[in-house]
Amino acid sequence: MAYRSTQGIVLSRTDYRENDRMLTLLSPEFGRVDALCRGCRKPKSPLMTAGELFCMGEYVLYTQGGRQIVTACSVIEAFYPLRLNYSRLSYGAMMLSAALKSAQPGEPAAHLYILLARSLRRLAYQDVPAKQVGTAFLLHLAAIGGFKPRLNHCVRCGRRMGEGEAGSLLPQEGGICCTSCCNRDPYRHRISAPGLQWLRQVLSQGIDRTENAPEEAPYALLAEYVAYHIDGQLLPVTDE
Ligand SMILES: [Zn+2]
User: Fold this and answer.
1) Rounded to whole angstroms, what are the CA distances from 137 to 17, 141, 219?
2) Residue 231, SS3?
3) Structure confidence by residue, pLDDT tens digits, 120-164
4) Where are the alpha helices (DSSP H) in 103-234?
5) 178 CA to middle of ligand 1, Å?
6) 182 C-alpha vs ligand 1 centroid, how far in Å?
């Protein structure tokens, strides 16, 4: 089958020759897909939007000599408003880079695809603070990737922690540690009781159904946690 069609989101793009680009798409069916997008840098190219970062569309791919070529794309969403706010753009770029490191060629990635599409929509079109969207994205990415942090029981003593308890999120130990077990661990891993309770709600109910989001979502903690597990730094973000 020389032609195949798949939904995709552009995770990265590299200019190639005079008017072309190499794209890396996230596909729900095929995981990470590299595809050449010919002519997409020409101002009047029908593939101009299809070759931009964040673009979500129905891509038609043609296989030729072991290489995939984008022959057509019907754009579903370009997430244009992301480009108007530098902070939101930086969180969006961080999400693309984290998805790029998590997805594998040929491995279906339906959950990751849905998570990325929903998170980009929230960033582009909703009032939810970018830091909360980014934190929730990383938490669900960890769950999908099989390294979901333990948030209810202390990773060291095994005790069930109460709703009003603060703790430390320890990347190497895979979850939360109670204050009596972690008083010698670095201060940067500390998380407040409301911050921790919010993470539990995000994980069990999704970000839309959480109450009492903390003033400052624990983004840096989640970024360190995920970077440790995917073995690579995430792109830095800028706050509003
Ligand atoms: Zn403990």
Assistant:
1) 35, 6, 10
2) coil
3) 999 999 999 999 999 999 999 999 999 999 999 999 999 999 999
4) 110-125, 130-144, 193-205, 219-230
5) 4
6) 7
Task: Say which residues have a Cβ less than 8 Å from residue 17's Cβ, sequence separation at least 6.
Answer: none
Percent of the chain with pLDDT over 90: 88
125 CA to centre of ligand 1 in angstroms: 41
Output the CA 159–ligand 1 centroid distance in Å: 6
| Spacing, Cα 176 to ligand 1 middle (Å) | 9
Distance 157 CA to ligand 1 centre (A): 4
pTM: 0.95
Domains delineated in the chain: 3-78 (2.40.50.140), 81-230 (1.20.1440.120)
C-alpha separations of 215 from 50, 91, 131 in Å: 37, 18, 10
Structure tokens at 56: 């979500």
The number of beta carbons lying within 10 Å of the beta carbon of residue 78 is 18
What is the CA(35)–ligand 1 centre distance, in A?
49
| Ligand 1 mean position, distance from CA 226 (Å) | 22
Question: What is the DSSP code string of 161-172?
Answer: PPTT--EEEEGG
Instruction: Give the separation between CA 97 and CA 106, rounded to whole angstroms.
Output: 18
Instruction: Please say whether the beta carbons of 114 and 206 come within 8 A.
Output: no
